[in-house]
Every structure is written in C-alpha cells, then in structure tokens.
Amino acid sequence: MLKDVTLGQFLPGDSPVHRLDPRAKILLLIAVIVFIFITGNYASLALVAVFVFAVILSTKISLKMYLKSMKMILFIVLFTGLINLFYGRGEPIFELGFIKITEAGINNAIFVSIRIALLILASSVLTFTTSPTDLTDAIERLLKPLTVFHIKVHEVAMMMTIALRFVPTLLEETDKIMSAQKARGADMDSGNLIKRVKALIPVLIPLFVSAFRRAIDLATAMECRCYRGGNGRTRMKTLHYGKIDLCASIICLLLLTGVILCNIFLPATVR
Amino acid sequence: MNIIETENLSFVYGLGTPFEKKANDKLNIKIEEGEFVGIIGHTGSGKSTLVQMLNGLIKPTSGTVRLNGEDIWASPQDIRKVRFKVGLVFQYPEYQLFEETVEKDIAFGPGNMGLSEAEIKDRVRSAARFAGLKDELLQKSPFDLSGGEKRRAAIAGVIAMDPDVLILDEPTAGLDPAGRDVLLAQIRQYHKERKNTVLLVSHSMEDIARTADRILVMNKGRAAMFDDTKAVFSRGEELEKMGLRVPQVTKIMSRLQNMGYNLPSGILTVEQAANELQALFDKNNF
Ligand SMILES: Nc1ncnc2c1ncn2[C@@H]1O[C@H](COP(=O)(O)OP(=O)(O)O)[C@@H](O)[C@H]1O
Ligand SMILES: [Mg+2]
Question: DSSP strand E in B68-139: where?
C-alpha cells in the first residue's frame, strides 16, 4: 500500500531526541552531516557511525523503520559505491581489460557507501522524531534573517506546513479512490504502459477534484479566522532552547573534536 | 446454501510497524443467499474492514472468505471476478465519480466486465431506475449534480454490475433525514425486486431496524451478536454498552411494557408503535 512510505514520516515518542528543540535538531543534523564528510580515515568514520547508531538507539524507534527508509535508497548507495570502485589512483590490484581496481578505489567505494547510508540515517532521525509543524516552525525561525532580502519567510513556511500536512491525507484519499475504482472492476496492475496510464484516469480525476475542494475549504477556513500573513502574528507554542539542547550541542562538539583528532593523528585513507 | 462464509477472518493494519492495529479478529460469519443483513457497530469497530475483505479488496491477514463455497483467494489473479459478484459501495461513494456524464460513469463497472454496448446501456438504465436517478440527469456531468444525486449516481455505478451480493457501507452518512428515508426505501425495493443478497452497513440503529432480516453487531473487531433483528434489539442494554443507540421508540415501548402495559417487545419503528398503542387504546376504550 501507499502508506508504506516511511521517508519523512513522523513517529511520536518521548525520547530525549524527541524533546530536543527542532531548531537545535536541524542545526545539529547539518553539523553531523559536515562531520560525516570531513572524516578522513576509518577511525573517524567509525566514530561518527557509532555516534549515529547511539542516537538511533536513543530515539527508541524500532530499527525496522530505519531499515525501511534505507531500503528506498539502497540502489543509490550501491550504485555510487560501484562507480567509486573504478575511480582510484595508484597501483591496480585487479585488472580486467579497461577495468582497473585499486586499493584507493576500494576505500573510496566503502567510504562513499557508508557516508551516504549515515547521511540517510541521520536525516531519518530528524524526520522520525520531529512533527512536520515543528519542523517548518523551526525552518521559519532559522530563515528569519532572510526577511531582510524581502523573502516572505512566513508565507513559504506556511505553504510547506500545509503541503506536508496534506501528504498523508492525499495518500489516504488516493488509496480510497483506488479501492473504490477497483471495486468497480478497474484493472490497475496489468497490461502495457498505455493501458496502465489510462487506468490512472479514474483515480487522478477524483483526486484533483477533491484536492481543489480541500484547498478552497482550507482557504475559506483560514480567512474566517482572519489569517492575513505573518505580520504581527504571535505563537501559541514558542520554541525554547533549553538545557537538553545545550547537552546535545556539547556532545556534538566532543564528536567534532574526536573526528578532528583522528584526522590529524592517524593516516588519511581517502583524499 | 451460504453465499458468503468466513472462517477465523482477521485483519491487522500496519503489520510490523508501531501503528499495528487489529481491525478484525477471528470472524466466523455465514450469510444465506437472498438475505438482507444489517451490519452495525460503533465507529472503528471494523465494519468497513470486514466488507472490504468480503469482496477481495484487501487480503485477510489470516482466515478465509468463501463465496459460494469457494475460497476467493484460491487464485489471486481472478480476484476481479469476485469484485463483480460482490458489489461494494464505499462510504461517501460520490468522491469516486470521474466521467464526463453520469451515464458514462455508471457504465464504468459494466464496461470493465467486457459486456456488449447494448447490454451496458440496458444495465445503466435499470441501475439508474433502481437508484432513483431521473433520466434527464444521465447526460449531465456528475460534478453538476447535487450531493444526494451524486450519491445515487455512485450507487447506480455498482448496481449496474448486477452483483449477486450488494454491500453498502454507510450509504446514508451525511444525507438529510428525508434523503435518508428515500434511499433506504429504494434499497429495500431493490432487494425485493432483484431478490439479491444485500449487506447494509450502518452505525445508526434506526436505519437498520426497519430493513434487515438479521443483524451482525460488531464490537472492537469482533462479532458481538449475529441474530434476527428483533432478538438483537431486545438486548438493548448490551447494545448501549457498545456505544450503540437503540431507537428511542424501542426504549419508550419497552419502558411502557415494564410499567405493566400489555405490549409486544422488540418494537422498532414509530409506525409499529403507533399501531400497537392504538390497539391498546381501542381495547381500553380511551
Ligand atoms: N487504512 C488504515 N490504516 C490503519 N488503520 C486503519 C485503516 N483503516 C481503518 N483502520 C483502523 O481499523 C479499525 C477499524 O476500522 P474500520 O473498519 O474503518 O471501522 P468502521 O468502518 O467500523 O468505522 C479502526 O480502529 C481504524 O482506526
Ligand atoms: Mg467505516
């Protein structure tokens, strides 16, 4: 079913990671992504990997969910890994026609695959533990300085919130309409490409009709409650940067120190 | 002969995720050919899940559904045939309309069955009549109809497949009382003329009371009762515990009965009550 899409799905919970300020989470995620890419040898890579897995365990979300989000991009990981295998300078340790595999190539392939996997896992932690509203709220706050350049940060954030809010609704609706048409004998899983595209019409038309209806209803409801953009709007829930966020920041700082020390004192494996 | 039979039928949503939810739990149900069965239960009791399994839209997590004695999932590639035999009208079916005209939309189901033009035309006409759609509406766009008319058009779209079993999932949800009564009368009429098996899902006791031969009461994914309409309604207290409202008239009549008046039990409609009371008055020369 369509609902099996896990990428970008929020899983409510009560772990320390859930309780972090979403702004802190976004910034720390960016920091961790930078760490992932400055790792220069296996020791520092392992350090970051251990950190990411520790965070994953602390979210108290079943590993199955993380595996599911990995599954969707497994192909990309393997593909980039494979490409990198053939791009390494130095003495080839294996040669077949124009294919040359060097030790550097093998190291590159392993590094790139693990880096991408860690990147996805770290990002999943953010989306699994942060509700979409918190997420856009945080993005709005972080992008606030851009208002100087006349960018309507609030409006953009509101659009993102609404779009995210309606993703599950529309998925559910698609599921329902598909079932209803299947109940009338629509055949969606067989036939050639043209037949399959044609079979989508009975699903897409009702879906568009209802999406527009929802958009109009939502706009009316917002106007009835006097929504008029971001100027002078206050919030019901304000974000607080607290002790727990400070702790998380310090842990990340320690991680950074560790990565840098490993990079300096141990020989580099890549680049 | 049982047209539909289920054995330990269970369904779990989101199997293997943190959102796992048992929607149906070991249902054993037998429905005879030509019966009019009401399915009733509180919101979330698993009615919609059950009916979607009956026509093969969702595959049971465990257990079997038998149609005319045959497991419907015996050969999964033939599941479409089951859907033609067991017609399901979804809740709020008006959101599935998509064609340019009402006529073409009703013809979608029969068209998928691979019938001839003439046959399709015939079926559309008779389905529209059963659903109470006026002829002049057939050439209109379904999006220009009123809410009630859209609902009828969508129901006609399923009736047009001429299923052996017609299942309607909360067909009266969101209709005004007059529209509701007319639609229920039409469904009764359909059952009477076609003599098909009809399953009517509802969370309103009133809807079901005057229509069904037997009632299946669902509670938390289990079949709490499955019995004749009167027998079910005579267990009013149990029903109320499951969050189901017994018709007010039934309550009043059973109270009067408890006060010592000579009245029959299991009165379900206002007309019945009026007749019984009139007879009582006549006897006592009021
Ligand atoms: N698509 C779905 N995904 C997850 N849970 C669902 C889904 N559909 C229904 N449920 C859950 O299954 C239970 C039974 O639902 P349903 O069969 O729709 O009940 P009813 O039709 O009696 O209101 C409910 O608790 C509902 O929340
Ligand atoms: Mg339902």
Answer: 70-71, 86-89
